[in-house]
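Dear U.,

For the methods section draft, I wanted the exact inputs and outputs in one place so we can describe them consistently. I've listed the two proteins in the order they'll appear in the manuscript figures. Please don't edit the token lines directly; just add comments below if something needs changing.

First protein:
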Amino acid sequence: MQCRMIELRYKEVINICDGSRLGFVGDVEVQLPEGQVAALIVPGPCRFFGLFGKGEEFYIPWECIQRIGDDIILIDKPFQRREPAFERKHRRKY
């Protein structure tokens, strides 16, 4: 299968570990001497309607990619989810 960088940018990345949608491919990391793709980089979600920039980027090594389809890329990589600050602050401890 051949695919150009511009075609990768229109594919959505979905994590099969928890079914979360990470977003669309923003960049590709390539090893220059070998010419191999090392990783995909997906920009993080916007913070507060995009006024405070974007969140952390998702760095997805090539080994974590399970399947590349016509419109999605399936990956198998567990990400640690952070709890929102509001829930952490107001959680009761028993």
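Second protein (the one for the lower panel):
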Amino acid sequence: MSALDVRNIVALALMVASGFSALGLQIVWTQQNALWLGQESAALLAVIGAFFGGLALGAWGFSARIE
């Protein structure tokens, strides 16, 4: 097994761990916002809106660097 294969496996493991932690944080934020907003559907919309808003701001901010 070459060093490149090991780095790919480590990178994949880190991405999987990041995805699991993001899912856990989304559940926590949804539950906290449900207490604050009074209903879970509004909380879910707020969390998803914040997520997509962050993606849009990141794409806008780094668009010149990405191109």
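Candidate sentences for the figure legend, describing the second protein: The CA atoms of residues 5 and 46 lie 40 Å apart. The mean pLDDT is 89.

Thanks,
Y.
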